[in-house]
C-alpha cells in the first residue's frame, strides 16, 4: 500500500473514533453557551406539536439487528459516551453542526437512543483488482453509521432541524472542530438531496487533517417529535481520498420504523 493510502487510513481512523464513538446520551448541547442550540428563529409551525415518545417507545422504534440487510446493528454502550463539552469549534455559529457531526444530541430531548450500524464488505471484492490500493479500498469498503434517535417535547424536533440547517448554511465554507483533543478542519459542507419522514436534510462534509482529506455524511430525518440523526464514514473511501454513497439503506430502515 502506498504511503498516501496509509496516511489517509490513519486520518479516517481518527475521524471515525471521534465521530462514530460519540454517544448522544453522554451530552446535553443545551448546557453549552448557556442556551438551547437547537432552537432557531422562525422554526415554529402552525401544526400542533407532536407528542414526544417515551424512552420505552423510542427503544422499540430504534434499529435492531436484522432491520438492515447486509449490515450489523449494535447498541452504543457507556464507553462510547463523550460530553458535548469536549466538542469545540472556532466559530460559535457552527457549534450545533459540530455537535451533530460528532453525534452529540441537540437541545434537550425527552429521551434518546444510539446505534452503530456497520455495512458488511462484499465478499471477494478485494480479489477483483491487481492494484494494491484498489484492493485495499475494496476490502475496506465498509460504511459505519452512528444512528441517534432523539425525541422532543413541543416544537423541539422542528427547532432542532431548523437550527442545524441554519448552522450548515452559515458554516458551509468551513470551520475548525476539536473533539477529544484532536483538531479537524471542516473544509466544506455541501447539501445533499435526501427524503424521509416529515422533513429531512443531509450533507457531505469534507474534513482535512495533516494535509489529507476525507468525507463524512450527515443526515437528519424528522418524524413527528422525533429526529433521527445519521453520521457516516466509509473507511475505504477515506483511505483512497474518494467519496462514498449515502447510507440510504440505514436511513430508509430507520425512517420506516418511525413512520
Summarize the model shown:
With 259 residues, this protein is an alpha+beta fold.
Which spans have pLDDT < 50 for at least 5 consecutive residues? Answer: 19-46
Strand order within the widest beta sheet: 1-3-4-9-8-7-6-5-2
If helices are DSSP runs of H or I spanning 4 or more residues, what is the number of helices? 7
Biggest sheet character: 9 strands, antiparallel
Give the overall silhouette.
Answer: globular
Binned, the helix content reads: 25-40%
* Total number of beta strands: 9
Mean pLDDT, nearest integer? 81
What is the percentage of strand-forming residues?
25-35%
> Secondary-structure element sequence?
HHEEHEHEHEEEEEHH
Return the structural class: alpha+beta
Roughly how many Å apart are the termini?
A: 45 Å
Rg computed from alpha carbons, rounded to a whole number of angstroms = 18 Å
Overall description:
By secondary structure, this protein is of the alpha+beta class. Helix 3 (95-102) crosses helix 5 (156-170). It is built from seven helices and nine strands, in the order H-H-E-E-H-E-H-E-H-E-E-E-E-E-H-H. The radius of gyration is 18 Å and the shape is globular. The chain has helices spanning 3-19, 55-61, 95-102, 132-139, 156-170, 235-240, 248-258; strands at 71-75, 87-89, 111-119, 143-151, 175-179, 182-192, 199-209, 212-223, 226-234. The model is unreliable at 19-46 (pLDDT under 50). A hairpin with a 2-residue loop joins strand 7 and strand 8.
Amino acid at each position: 500500500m502506498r504511503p498516501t493510502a496509509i496516511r489517509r487510513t490513519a486520518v479516517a481512523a481518527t475521524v471515525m473514533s471521534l465521530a462514530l464513538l460519540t454517544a448522544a446520551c453522554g451530552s446535553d448541547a443545551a448546557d453549552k453557551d448557556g442556551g438551547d442550540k437547537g432552537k432557531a428563529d422562525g422554526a415554529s409551525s402552525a401544526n400542533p406539536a407532536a407528542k414526544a415518545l417515551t424512552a420505552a417507545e423510542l427503544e422499540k422504534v430504534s434499529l435492531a439487528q436484522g432491520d438492515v440487510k447486509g449490515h450489523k446493528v449494535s447498541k452504543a454502550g457507556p464507553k462510547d459516551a463523550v460530553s458535548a463539552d469536549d466538542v469545540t469549534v472556532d466559530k460559535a455559529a457552527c457549534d450545533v453542526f459540530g455537535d451533530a457531526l460528532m453525534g452529540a444530541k441537540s437541545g434537550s430531548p425527552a429521551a434518546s437512543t444510539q446505534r452503530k450500524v456497520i455495512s458488511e464488505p462484499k465478499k471477494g471484492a478485494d480479489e477483483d483488482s491487481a492494484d494494491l490500493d484498489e484492493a485495499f479500498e475494496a476490502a475496506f469498503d465498509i460504511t459505519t453509521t452512528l444512528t441517534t434517535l432523539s425525541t422532543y417535547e413541543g416544537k423541539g424536533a422542528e427547532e432542532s432541524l431548523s437550527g442545524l440547517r441554519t448552522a450548515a448554511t452559515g458554516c458551509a465554507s468551513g470551520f475548525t472542530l476539536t473533539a477529544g483533543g484532536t483538531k479537524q478542519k471542516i473544509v466544506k459542507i455541501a447539501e445533499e438531496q435526501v427524503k424521509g419522514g416529515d422533513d429531512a436534510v443531509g450533507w457531505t462534509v469534507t474534513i482535512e487533517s495533516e494535509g489529507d482529506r476525507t468525507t463524512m455524511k450527515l443526515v437528519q430525518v424528522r418524524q413527528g417529535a422525533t429526529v433521527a440523526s445519521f453520521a457516516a464514514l466509509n473507511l475505504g473511501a477515506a483511505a483512497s481520498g474518494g467519496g462514498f454513497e449515502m447510507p440510504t439503506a440505514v436511513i430508509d430502515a430507520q425512517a420506516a420504523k418511525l413512520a
